[in-house]
Amino acid sequence: MKSIALLWFGIAVFSVGQAQAPEIFPDLVPNTQSNDSFKDQEWFEFRIHYGFFNASIATLKLEETILNNRPVFHAKGYGKTIGLARWFFKVEDHYESYFDPSSGVPYKAIRDIYEGGYTKDIETDFDHEAQEAFVHDKKKKTKTRIPISEKAQDFISAFYYLRNFLPPGELEPNRSFAINMFFDNDNYLFKLKYVGKETLNSKFGRVSCLKFKPIVQAGRVFKEKESVTLWVSDDRNRIPIRMQADLAIGSIKVDLEKFKNLKHPFRIEISQ
User: Fold this and answer.
1) Is-above-0.85 flag for pTM?
2) Domain range holding 162?
């Protein structure tokens, strides 16, 4: 149930696979225009549906700030169950990430969650030069150094990294690429396959989207390894419009509900 709860937090479309040896995929290259997809004070609200239930909401806000005397982006995510779902399974998730405005690599990640009685309160500091993560588990009162993969992303920074550093120019359908991630004290490869372009009917109107399939683990939670589908706006903002996941039992759909302070105009084909 905890894996499903992660999906309730709107950015959990980046579901990671099995822990693997460190590896870097060079075809995911930086955009020539740094920070071209987002800016200070960008804000999203997502609504998450589990089957017919309006199960939860999630918000994500981005701010410019200073961390250890260097300018960074500070992303703050919050997700919670609402309505009837909250009676059955209370979720209060806080995720934060401080990442470099140019390279996109994270310097600090914060995870403070409550999921049906399951709790975690963890701060992670990244040293990319030494390729180490310093993990402070406040609940267990432990501090641990763990080797990380090159340019490893955290749970939240990966969202912005992929928006800003997807291969520029034309994407070839069925092309796959990957990034290194560090989550829950493990190194992972997050793999993503580009399917093609698709026009999606949304609450804002018809939106031209890039369609992706994150590669997840088939089994207890997901039906198949390509059970998750993500639609991202085919414009310079690269914002997530919808995510849908077919689970072993039921399905989850995440829709963009509101947004503010996008860096570029949001392109809509036909207003509804």
Assistant:
1) yes
2) 2-260
40 Cβ contact partners less than 8 Å away, ≥ 6 residues apart:
62, 63, 64, 73, 261
Is residue 271 one of the residues assigned to a domain?
no
Which carries the bigger pLDDT value, residue 191 or residue 42? 42
Strand partners, 222: 218, 247
Euclidean distance between CA atoms 259 and 270, whole angstroms: 18
What pLDDT is attached to residue 177?
82
Count of structural domains within the chain: 1
pLDDT of amino acid 99: 98
Q: Rounding to the nearest 10 degrees, give the CA dihedral for residues 235, 236, 241, 245.
A: 100
Q: How confident is the model at residue 219 (pLDDT cuts 50, 70, 90)?
A: low
In a domain, 75, yes or no: yes
User: Which residues lie below 8 Å from residue 217, measured CB to CB, with a gap of 6+?
Assistant: 15, 17, 18, 225
**Is residue 272 situated within a structural domain?**
no
Q: For residues 181 and 187, give the distance between their C-alpha atoms in angstroms, rounded to a whole number.
A: 6
Question: How many whole angstroms separate alpha carbon 160 and alpha carbon 35?
Answer: 9
Q: What's the whole-number mean pLDDT along residues 77-95?
A: 88
User: Of 2-6, 54-58, 80-84, 125-129, which range is least confident?
Assistant: 2-6
